[in-house]
Backbone:
């Protein structure tokens, strides 16, 4: 029994869009998805008739919990006029819409459909921070949640183990955060569109306006090291190591390669995709690695015939700063223990040799969990088409990008490689 | 843009199993799924190495709500030893595992995998009846839930509209219930393994044992008409019109037709499958029909080249007795307004011309919502292989069966046609 790792038909992305990510108390999931859908419609170079869409795959983690409504497939389908066509919700925690993407690809590869809408949505901000923590704990593996681990708790332990094993420290997590904000600043859809330097200055001005003693920090790391400005969440993770609570939606349009030119002269090929599953902390052989990421990466590289060095730009699942560092290693971009050094040396900056999270990542773009996986594809779509505006990667011959989406504390992972041909 | 309605590879079922359905306070979702998995392993005629399974698709409605844990793909994957292989949860309310089945078929048809495990699980009995009603309301469409409709409420309105339009009455709903119990009696995995006559007698004996006045009913319909024995839930639906609250799991093993003989000389072909989506009560053109069922049926018939008359035995989604009657019409088995007459005439009994729900259906087999879709496939597997024991359909040349799974109040529907070749 061998994996073929070859699809019966090649699949391409022919359109991509997203709503702004942020906190939108006045919008529900339908509102946000319709915004993403309209953004996607506008992205299809040669236009098309939305009535031609044949099925919807929708990622959503747990609007069950967040807004007390499940069964979003037909609801979103109705919102964008697709009833009575098939609509399937997938759930893999924070990787929910990456799973939807994968099923959309398989539905087309199988020969059943020619035009599939894939998206994701989540509305989290209607709950308090404490409730969101409780909701996200639904996605840990049972043993973790039952013994009281929250998400930051699991990743805090992970960071401590990484520090211990490789001699890294908090200052290396700060490098990730500083870079994320530099990119988020340039993304008009991001939840946080400010550099840390700007946030420092804003905080200073606010204090001055109140007549309070105005804080002064030597640089971004001094700011991040100030427990008033950046309080502890779960040692060694502090507030700025954690992605925010967000609302948002994203979607892409998929077609078989054979008809791609009906939609655009610049289709994005799905060159390879992989998915893996993992256990929790209790069963990990190595706290500084994610078995689901390694399995997903191996499958995607094998399918694409590409290697880590071929990936020129990548969206990586930075739910916490430490996660970004470890994934850089699990994806093969840098050797184990070298991820934090690569970040410190600027290699993952927009103008580095391996630009990571040009969108601002989960940290700054925001992380409406069910929408994140597809929103990563939206970013790579823009980058590989050279349409990423101010945050465009300044790389010659930009052709291969990838998206990495992690669900829960490592239970689910996907890695997808895209190629402009 | 046309649907191909043809898969790149034909897909077959080569194994099928389920846990008993019922109320099992001592078992969790992992326990139940492992029971289903072991039952499936034993069903594979020529045996196989479970390590050869390449991916899992798992249907679950909302263990999020019922047991406060989401992200079941990797958890169940771990329980049956599949880590780090891909595991994807699908959710379409009560059709959640029918969606998993569909994705399993597409994954194989796409060429990516050769051996896929598809299952479903739900644990509902840890919540009170009131809480389960609240949980199921997560699957209504927003307008229904927001104005206070529960599931029985929506189907009560549906029954009233059907009665009004076609002149049917409560006695016709009773025909469905009586038949369900006759079948459930013969299913050793069913939650209720008793005919109504037996339940009447048991109730009488219980009263006698207590020294209370022993009730006496002329026949089953007199029993069902007694508001003490069969209290009202949502007019005109009474307790015995409603499926119970259940725990359970089911799974099947899928392979491409090309290698099916490695596993069995009696593979079950997926001849056609369809999926549809629907709106809620507020948007229905006709309260006595489900647009999602009609869409799913049209797609499945077109793909299979078969017609309603070709389906010899069918599992139909009888969440409420009225639902079974209406689906018989929407699936084309009987003309609109004739479903209730067909049931009254015994046409849907095990020895009738169109045996329906030989398993006992959701009413008697039980309805752990996330497991139901795949458990329907398990029943058709047994029937078409002539291995359904006492409840085997006594039909010559039995070759074609089907499963119909409805999610929510009609939001999602699947219809799948199986053929023994």
Residues:
């Amino acid at each position: 029994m061998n994996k073929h790792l070859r699809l019966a038909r090649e699949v391409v992305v022919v359109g991509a869009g997203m709503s702004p990510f942020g906190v939108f108390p006045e919008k529900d999931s339908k509102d946000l998805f319709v915004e993403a859908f309209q953004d996607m419609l506008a992205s299809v170079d040669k236009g098309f008739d939305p009535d031609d869409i044949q099925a919807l795959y929708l990622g959503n983690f747990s609007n069950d919990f967040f807004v007390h409504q499940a069964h979003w497939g037909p609801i979103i389908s109705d919102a964008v006029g697709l009833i009575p066509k098939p609509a399937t919700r997938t759930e893999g925690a924070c990787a929910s819409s990456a799973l939807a993407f994968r099923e959309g690809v398989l539905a087309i590869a199988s020969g059943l459909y020619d035009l599939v809408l894939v998206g994701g949505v989540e509305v989290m901000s209607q709950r308090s921070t404490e409730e969101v923590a409780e909701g996200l704990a639904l996605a840990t593996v049972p043993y973790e949640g039952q013994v009281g681990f929250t998400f930051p708790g699991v990743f805090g332990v992970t960071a401590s183990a990484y520090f211990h094993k490789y001699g890294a420290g908090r200052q290396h997590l700060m490098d990730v955060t500083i870079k994320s904000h530099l990119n988020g600043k340039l993304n008009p859809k991001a939840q946080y569109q400010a550099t840390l330097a700007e946030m420092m200055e804003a905080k200073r001005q606010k204090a001055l306006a109140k007549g309070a003693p105005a804080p002064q920090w030597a640089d971004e790391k001094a700011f991040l090291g100030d427990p008033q400005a950046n309080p502890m969440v779960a040692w060694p993770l502090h507030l700025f190591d954690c992605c925010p609570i967000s609302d948002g939606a994203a979607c892409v349009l998929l077609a078989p390669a054979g008809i791609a030119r009906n939609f655009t002269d610049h289709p994005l090929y799905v060159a390879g995709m992989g998915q893996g599953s993992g256990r929790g902390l209790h069963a990990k052989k190595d706290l500084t690695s994610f078995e689901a990421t390694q399995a997903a990466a191996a499958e995607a590289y094998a399918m694409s015939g590409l290697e880590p060095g071929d990936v020129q730009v990548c969206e990586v699942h930075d739910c916490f700063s430490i996660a970004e560092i470890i994934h850089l290693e699990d994806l093969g971009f840098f050797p184990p223990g070298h991820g934090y050094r690569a970040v410190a040396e600027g290699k993952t900056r927009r103008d580095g040799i391996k630009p990571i999270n040009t969108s601002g990542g989960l940290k700054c773009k925001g992380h409406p969990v069910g929408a994140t996986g597809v929103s990563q594809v939206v970013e790579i779509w823009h980058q590989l088409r050279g349409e990423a505006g101010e945050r465009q990667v300044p790389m010659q011959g930009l052709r291969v990008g990838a998206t990495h989406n992690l669900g829960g504390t490592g239970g689910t992972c996907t890695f997808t490689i895209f190629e402009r041909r």
